[in-house]
Structure formats: C-alpha cells, structure tokens
C-alpha cells in the first residue's frame, strides 16, 4: 500500500538519491530533463522547510516525491493560463525511483495532489514537463491536463518545457 505524507528533514538524502536515480535513468534514455545541477539538495531542503514536499512510502521505503506549492515561479509569467492567478497550486519535482516505476506510484502522487487541491478549494493545478519526455507528456494529457505555452530552463536544456493546467471542479 502506498502512503503519502509530508517529508521531514531526515528524508532529504533519500529524496535526493531518488532524484539522482531518476536523472540517470532519463539521461540513459536521452531525456535531458534533470542533471547534476537540478534538482539540487538545497532545492529539496527548501521544499521540506516550506512544507511543500510530500513523499510516497511503501512500508518504511521512500519510493517517490512531489512538490505541491502555491508559489508561482517567475518563469510562468508569460503563460496564458486557463484560470486567473488566484488559488492555484504548482506541481514540481514529481519523481519515482526507477526501481518502483510503473507500479502506480506516480499516479497516486498526482491523485493526492488533485485531492489536495479539491479539499483546499484551489481553482487549478499548474505544472511543466520537459517537451522531450514523451511519457510524462502523455501521462498529464491522460489526466486531462491542458497543454498551454512553453518555458525554458537553459541550465537544463535547450528544448522547451510544456506548461499544463487542469481546472479543479
């Protein structure tokens, strides 16, 4: 059974290890979405301190993570979002260790985020994913997220990241 809870500072190293394993797995598939610079340990530490990092667990093993934030990053300012900038959440750093992928953990983390949005009266969920990560793009489209504009993260890739939004009913 998958359990999802807020990450604690003692979970930091395991979360960083998951991100590193995901980066290596994606790079081996020619998907240059994450690298040795991103996501950094400091980024995850900040997520924990802001109470925005959630982890998935099977027993005592941390298998994945997701950031649920209310902060709109500056890079999103030129995106023509479906909803107004009011009561939106932003998803970042969704990761499932490669040893645990294709077992429904990513779906469980996104379902958790969507339920969190509903329970807390958020109007929409916004996120971005790498344009060259076909699997991720298909995943979000299958969950009824609308693909909108693009943003760029030059430290990660020359290719765009597609922005998505889902209106919460």
The outline comes out as: globular
Over the alpha carbons, how many angstroms does the gyration radius reach?
15 Å
Order of strands side by side in the largest beta sheet? 1-2-3-4-5-7-6
Report the sheet with the most strands, covering strand number, pairing sense and barrel closure.
7 strands, mixed
- How confident overall, as mean pLDDT? 96
User: What is the terminal separation in angstroms?
Assistant: 28 Å
List its salient traits.
169 residues, alpha+beta, Aminopeptidase, 7-stranded mixed sheet, 4 helices, 28% strand
Helix-strand layout with pairing:
Layout (H helix, E strand, L loop, with lengths): L2 E4 L5 H17 L12 H9 L3 E6 L2 E9 L18 E9 L8 H15 L4 E7 L3 H9 L3 E6 L9 E7 L2
Parallel strand pairs: 4-5
Antiparallel strand pairs: 1-2, 2-3, 3-4, 5-7, 6-7
Structure description:
This protein has 169 residues and is of the alpha+beta class. It has one domain: Aminopeptidase (3-Layer(aba) Sandwich). The protein has helices at residues 12-28, 41-49, 105-119, 134-142; strands at 3-6, 53-58, 61-69, 88-96, 124-130, 146-151, 161-167. Helix 1 (12-28) crosses helix 2. The radius of gyration is 15 Å and the shape is globular. The protein starts with a strand and ends with a strand. The model has no long low-confidence stretch (mean pLDDT 96).
């Amino acid at each position: 059974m998958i359990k999802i809870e807020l990450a604690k500072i003692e979970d930091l190293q395991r979360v960083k290890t998951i991100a590193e394993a995901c980066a290596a797995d994606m790079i081996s598939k020619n998907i240059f979405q994450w690298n040795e610079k991103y996501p950094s340990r400091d980024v995850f530490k900040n997520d924990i301190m802001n109470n925005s990092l959630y982890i998935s667990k099977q027993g005592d093993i941390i298998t994945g993570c997701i950031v649920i934030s209310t902060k709109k990053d500056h890079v999103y300012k030129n995106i023509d979002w479906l909803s107004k900038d009011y009561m939106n959440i932003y998803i970042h750093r969704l990761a499932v260790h490669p040893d645990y992928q294709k077992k429904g953990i990513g779906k469980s983390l996104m379902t958790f985020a969507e339920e969190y949005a509903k329970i807390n009266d958020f109007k929409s969920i916004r996120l971005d994913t790498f344009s060259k990560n076909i699997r991720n793009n298909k995943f979000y489209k299958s969950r009824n997220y609308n693909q909108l504009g693009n943003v760029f993260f030059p430290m990660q890739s020359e290719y765009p990241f597609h922005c998505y939004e889902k209106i919460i009913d």
